[in-house]
From TrEMBL, chain A:
It is an enzyme of class 7 (translocase). Its main location: membrane. Residues 10-463 form the NADP transhydrogenase beta-like domain. The lineage of its organism: Bacteria, Bacillati, Actinomycetota, Actinomycetes, Micrococcales. This is NAD(P) transhydrogenase subunit beta. GO terms for cellular component: plasma membrane. It catalyses: NAD(+) + NADPH + H(+)(in) = NADH + NADP(+) + H(+)(out). It is a multi-pass membrane protein.
UniProtKB/TrEMBL annotation, chain B:
It is found in: Cell inner membrane. The chain crosses the membrane at residues 6-24, 36-56, 62-82. This is proton-translocating NAD(P)(+) transhydrogenase. InterPro entries: NADP_transhyd_a_C. Keywords: Cell inner membrane, Cell membrane, Membrane, NAD, NADP, Translocase, Transmembrane, Transmembrane helix. The transhydrogenation between NADH and NADP is coupled to respiration and ATP hydrolysis and functions as a proton pump across the membrane. It is a multi-pass membrane protein.
């Protein structure tokens, strides 16, 4: 080991410490921003060290550096511009898009490295195995994440897309990818074979995500995030770069944990999500019996305003509907009005509220809601017992008391105990069931009033109504 | 060669374990920024683009270098900027210019990294 290689190794180690400390600091909102900056510092360190090493080793072809620089300028500009302009409600698809390109970059690196090698004497498995794995995982992540982003953005229909014989096609594509990959490892001599691996894997990524419903897309994004992490780690093996191995493994672990937690919060297993065909809502309209709709009590914005104005403890339960109608500023405005008049207001946030875990917290933070008012599931549930009015805005399955009983689609799912509140108001556009496809018993409970409207408009009306009662 | 492979494998496995340990302590309220932050971290793949650029000496190599650099830099720059934008909103409101409630669109309330 030369002195330079030793120094580079130490610098890589320092970068790894930055990444781990940065992630660690993301556990509280107060330190999270600093954590991200420390992680960025680790990034600069790792890339800088790689750059120094590459320059000293390079038999310098200026075209390579030109290709690198122009790629960085174009890609970096795109990334920064998109990041600065994206709406907070559209964060999940942007994360998915960045994930896609990360996977694509990892696959491109393995491919380029393979092309640059002299394979006439064959390759050791310690190189060929990570090359093949990198190309497979990176390509699946690239095409799969693009499809998931398209579904979240609404460019691609959110319904599961299935066609006859899809399973057979899937199996064939996987066999081609693995077969070509195996051949590459056994006899790594021809790049067209690696191209077959690449194309089959890209195709598989598309086929894997198309049949998954829009509601499950966030879980898939998280899973593919783990994939990209692993692809980057494999690329690290290929070019022998420890900072890529460490960072890739960290992200692989993060994505895996998030995927499992999300699946748990949605009461689904990762396997059933991947098998797809869920989230159509077709079965629900059949199950919506007359008994449920008959007992529904409809209320007006004025009724709700009166109730809120004379309440002492109010809990707001924001859900996907709030995010969809971009009503985070309206809800925050209403809450501030109530708080200013001495009413205690809290938000009860289910782990999968919004379009990905923690997304609702980001939306509320954007609307200047203090972090201390946001209750997680475990903190929120005891609070419902002493709550006068629970205002549910665009949330559905996560409030269904049927989850406490066995034998239905939401059984066992962690829910918010909204039905424990003295009075419940649900703002929702219609009685249509949520993604689980079963009626919500909360809506027909005696203490519940339904306000059928778009979240943004309803919250505006309620705010006006409250103003009448609190100022006079 | 096998020695390098072994130490790299050890690093890989231990990093996975550290990742599981660190991530499982993060509350669900911060999962979106954390996922975005982790997403930015795998932008370290740009180091791979650098290595590939240094070795490239064929047209195919240059093209792949360009693609890798394009993708990786969108990932790394975009990832860090958007994560920072999100996390900045979690800092107390007093530290930021106040936002008129109920009238502003998200796109105009937050503009980049200036604070």
């Amino acid at each position: 080991m030369t002195l330079l290689a030793f120094i580079i190794g130490v610098v890589f180690l320092a970068a790894a410490v930055f990444f781990v400390v940065g992630l660690h600091l993301m556990r509280t909102p107060r330190t999270a921003r600093r954590g991200n900056l420390i992680s960025a510092g680790g990034m600069i360190t790792a890339v800088g060290a790689t750059l120094v090493y590459a320059i000293t080793l390079s038999h310098s072809h200026s075209l390579g550096w030109i290709a690198l620089t122009s790629g960085v300028i174009v890609g970096g500009t795109f990334g920064v511009v998109r990041s600065r302009s994206v709406k907070m409600t559209d964060i999940p698809q942007l994360v998915s898009l960045f994930n896609a390109v990360g996977g694509g970059a990892a696959a491109a690196i393995a491919f380029a490295d393979f092309l640059g090698r002299d394979v006439s004497a064959g390759l050791t498995p310690s190189t060929s195995v990570p090359v093949v794995l990198d190309v497979i995982i990176g390509s699946v992540s690239l095409s799969g994440s693009l499809i998931a982003a398209g579904k979240l953005q609404g460019v691609i229909p959110g319904q599961p897309i299935q066609f006859p014989g899809a399973r057979v096609v899937n199996v064939v594509v996987v066999l081609v990818a693995l077969g070509a990959g195996g051949a590459m490892i056994a006899q790594p001599t021809s790049w067209p074979m690696l191209l077959v691996v690449l194309v089959a894997s890209l195709l598989f990524g598309v086929l894997m995500v198309l049949p998954i419903g829009g509601a499950d897309a966030p879980v898939v994004v998280s899973l593919l995030n783990a994939f990209t992490g692993l692809a980057v780690a494999m690329a690290g093996f290929v070019i022998d770069n420890q900072s890529m191995i460490i960072a890739g493994a960290l992200v692989g672990a993060a994505g895996t944990i998030l995927t499992l937690q999300m699946a748990k919060a949605m009461n689904r297993s990762v396997l059933t999500i991947m098998l797809g065909g869920f989230g159509t809502g077709d079965s629900g309209s059949v199950a919506l019996g007359a008994t449920v709709t008959a007992n529904v009590r409809e209320v007006t914005a004025d009724d709700v305003g009166l109730q809120l104005a004379y309440a002492r403890h109010v809990i707001i339960v924001p859900g996907f509907g709030l995010a969809a109608s971009q009503a985070q500023h309206e809800v925050a405005g209403l809450a501030k009005l109530l708080t200013d008049h001495g009413i205690d207001v809290k938000y009860a946030i289910h782990p999968v509220a919004g379009r990905m875990p923690g997304h609702m917290n980001v939306l509320l933070a954007e609307a200047n809601v203090p972090y201390s008012q946001m209750l997680q599931l475990e903190e929120a549930n005891p609070a419902f017992d002493t709550c006068d009015v629970a205002l549910v805005v665009g949330a559905n399955d996560v409030t269904n008391p049927a989850a406490r009983r066995p034998g239905n689609a939401v059984s066992g799912m962690p829910i918010l105990d909204v039905d424990h509140a003295t009075s419940v108001v649900v703002v929702k556009r219609s009685m249509s069931p949520g993604y689980a496809g079963i009626p919500n018993e909360l809506f027909s409970a005696p203490q519940t009033g339904m306000l059928f409207d778009d979240a943004k408009k309803a919250l505006g009306d309620i705010t006006l109504a409250v103003k009448q009662y609190v100022t006079t | 060669m096998t020695e390098t492979l072994f130490s790299n494998l050890a690093i890989f496995v231990l990093s996975l374990l550290v990742g599981f340990e660190v991530i499982s302590k993060i509350p669900s309220t911060l999962h979106t920024p954390m996922m975005s932050g982790a997403n930015a971290i795998h932008g370290v793949v740009i180091a791979g683009a650098v290595a590939v650029a240094a070795a490239a000496d064929t047209p195919a190599g240059y093209i792949l270098t360009f693609i890798a650099a394009l993708f990786a830099s969108a990932n790394v720059f975009g990832g860090y900027v958007v994560t920072d934008r999100m996390l900045r909103m979690f800092t107390p409101a007093a530290a930021r210019p106040s936002t008129p409630v109920a009238a502003t669109t998200p796109a105009t309330t937050m503009s980049g990294k200036t604070s």
